[in-house]
């Protein structure tokens, strides 16, 4: 029986191998967008030492996967998982490469911040009364984009990537095609938001623009810009930001949307567990289990659940 000959992994061959791997993943039905970016960054990382070290080594892979000082544990873990899956694929293709076992990193346990109704009102009062400056459209875009994130439960990336083709003004709904789960979603919006959105598009959006929201220099706006605005309006609304990793975070609007939506369903007599299934589909989750992670019961929104608990404690 012939011994298996493994091929050394050349850094020159890495771009083509990564491209083939991404193609295989997408052919299998995976969106594989974020993961593809991770592997492309890995190529650039390896390119730095290509002249001195033409072959990919296990120690370099460990260095690539190691947690950076400024990043979260979850980010480093995700990079390690994507890299490990790619290395496993290369080994199946008879490449002589291994990724040593990486240290286990604890997931950050962040408790989402649920905005109260009063805080939501103060936040939008701040966006609606913001002054413009130096050609910026912040004061025009903010009242709309934050209402899309909170009022429609959109992910920030979904809001910033909206194009004219994603909006049906007659049916008052968004048609989202670029979603995390790669599924088309139909999201209704209120009459008030529809008027804001339509007036904005008629005034500032042309048919050749890839996305409806643009920045100061006519480029599309990204998450970092939205976050900067978010922090500005928190301060204007006198909502305390507790510091890094403590929130409130921009994504907490989505958590708050889920809690508020369930509260409304409960008010209409819908069973919470049935409502959870509807909500899961609406916000684009693959399973109800994902949606459960978004929910934080608070006395303000679910008194019917908390009242018996408090009564039991008081009688205790």
TrEMBL record:
<keyword id="KW-0238">DNA-binding</keyword>
<comment type="similarity">
    <text>Belongs to the 'phage' integrase family.</text>
</comment>
<dbReference type="GO" id="GO:0003677">
    <property type="term" value="F:DNA binding"/>
</dbReference>
<keyword id="KW-0233">DNA recombination</keyword>
<dbReference type="GO" id="GO:0015074">
    <property type="term" value="P:DNA integration"/>
</dbReference>
<dbReference type="InterPro" id="IPR013762">
    <property type="entry name" value="Integrase-like_cat_sf"/>
</dbReference>
<dbReference type="Pfam" id="PF00589">
    <property type="entry name" value="Phage_integrase"/>
</dbReference>
<protein>
    <submittedName>
        <fullName>Tyrosine-type recombinase/integrase</fullName>
    </submittedName>
</protein>
<dbReference type="InterPro" id="IPR002104">
    <property type="entry name" value="Integrase_catalytic"/>
</dbReference>
<dbReference type="GO" id="GO:0006310">
    <property type="term" value="P:DNA recombination"/>
</dbReference>
<dbReference type="InterPro" id="IPR011010">
    <property type="entry name" value="DNA_brk_join_enz"/>
</dbReference>
<dbReference type="InterPro" id="IPR050090">
    <property type="entry name" value="Tyrosine_recombinase_XerCD"/>
</dbReference>
<feature type="domain" description="Tyr recombinase">
    <location>
        <begin position="110"/>
        <end position="307"/>
    </location>
</feature>
């Amino acid at each position: 029986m012939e011994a298996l000959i493994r091929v050394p992994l050349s850094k020159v061959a890495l771009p083509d191998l990564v491209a083939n791997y991404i193609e295989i993943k997408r052919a299998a039905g995976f969106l594989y967008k974020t993961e593809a970016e991770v592997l492309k960054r890995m190529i650039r990382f390896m390119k730095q030492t290509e002249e001195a070290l033409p072959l990919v080594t296990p120690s370099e892979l460990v260095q690539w996967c190691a947690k950076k000082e400024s990043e979260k544990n979850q980010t480093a873990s995700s990079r390690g998982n994507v890299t490990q899956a790619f290395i496993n694929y290369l080994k199946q293709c008879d490449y002589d490469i291994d990724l040593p076992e990486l240290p286990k990193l604890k997931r950050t346990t962040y408790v989402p911040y649920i905005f109260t109704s009063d805080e939501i009102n103060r936040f939008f009062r701040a966006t609606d009364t913001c002054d413009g400056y130096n050609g910026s459209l912040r004061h025009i875009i903010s009242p709309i984009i934050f209402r899309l994130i909170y009022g429609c439960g959109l992910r920030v990336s979904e809001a910033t990537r909206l194009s004219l083709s994603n909006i049906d003004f007659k049916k008052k709904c968004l048609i989202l095609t670029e979603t995390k789960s790669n599924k088309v979603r139909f999201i209704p919006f209120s009459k008030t938001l529809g008027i804001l959105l339509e007036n904005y598009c008629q005034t500032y959006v042309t048919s050749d623009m890839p996305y409806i929201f643009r920045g100061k220099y006519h480029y599309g706006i990204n998450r970092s810009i939205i976050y900067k605005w978010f922090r500005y309006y928190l301060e204007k609304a006198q909502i305390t930001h507790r510091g890094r990793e403590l929130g409130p975070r921009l994504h907490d609007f989505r958590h708050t949307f889920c809690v508020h939506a369930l509260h409304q369903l409960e008010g209409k007599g819908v069973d919470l567990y049935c409502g959870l299934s509807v909500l899961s589909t609406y916000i684009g989750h693959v399973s109800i289990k994902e949606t459960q992670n978004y929910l934080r019961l608070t006395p303000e929104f679910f008194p019917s659940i908390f009242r018996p608990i408090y009564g039991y404690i008081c009688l205790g």
